[in-house]
Amino acid sequence: MTILRDTQSSLNCDASPRNRADTGAPKGNTLNMRRSWTRTGALTAVVLTALLLAGCTANGGGSSSPSEGGAPNVGVIEPGVRDETTGFAADGMTSEVKTSNRDVVTTGSVSITVPDPIKSAQSAVTLTEQAGGRVDSRNEMPATDNQAASATLRLRIPADALDHTLIELKALGTVNYVSLNATDVTQQTKDLDARITALQTSVDRLLSLMSAASDTTDLITIEDALSSRQADLESLISQRNLLADQIDYSTITLDLYEDGIVAPGAPGDFWSGVVAGWLALVNTVGAVVVALGVALPWIGAIVIVGLIVLLIVRLFTRRRNAA
């Protein structure tokens, strides 16, 4: 605001009658110059006012992290325990604490033991899509001789359908654990909305000034300011859309494991030991062969360099002996 008062005072002083008398210019030219200065000064003042107001609002709004004012982490939920602070029950169900006037981002993980992880993964996808959600990632590991089958899915489930969907997912097998985390982002949402509104107002004001600008300098100034404000506005809108997606769709990581997973143990008899030793020998020889294959080019290069150095040394020795 001090800049605006200084600008207006400077313009008034330049356009005062005493200054016009000192210049000795004709009265008509002086009036035209005064009108031009007044129009330019007024336009500049309006532009500066718009920039200052938008800048103060954008900087003053700040940004708050999702954890500000948020609910604490739930962690692993033990059977029969209810967390009164975060609004999650022991069975992974959200309680009445989550109301419509709060914006909450819910994330979590669920581990289930199932007879067939691959088949259960498809069932989980179907349940999620029926609830109106989607699957962001899906990894399946078929069973091998040394590894049991497993599957990991990253599910995006609508927040209002999370309770019902979790019940259906847990029915796929035996639940190992359910861990949920709720973060209150209400203040962050309000801050983004306020900053978006302020920047949109600034952009609209600059657009109207651009349409009324007749001076090239003023037009360039307005265009530069408008480009900056539009970039900031698009960035804030993108952040707001991402936050809205996190609020509307809970993120759940689902791990599915096969029944009867047993870690490999020691051989139980003589022939099992012979087989295990033979397999270990084959694996070791294979590893050595692979290592030799990797080292062979380096060995060849070292031999060539060594031969060149040896040849140079011999030539130098012969010349010195001859001398």
Automatic annotation (TrEMBL):
Keywords: Membrane, Transmembrane, Transmembrane helix. Residues 1-32 are annotated as: Disordered. The keyword Phosphoprotein does not apply. Residues 1-13 have a biased composition (Polar residues). The chain crosses the membrane at residues 298-317. The keyword Transmembrane helix applies. Pfam families: DUF4349. Residues 102-309 form the DUF4349 domain. InterPro entries: DUF4349. This is DUF4349 domain-containing protein. It comes from Cryobacterium psychrophilum. The lineage of its organism: Bacteria, Bacillati, Actinomycetota, Actinomycetes, Micrococcales.
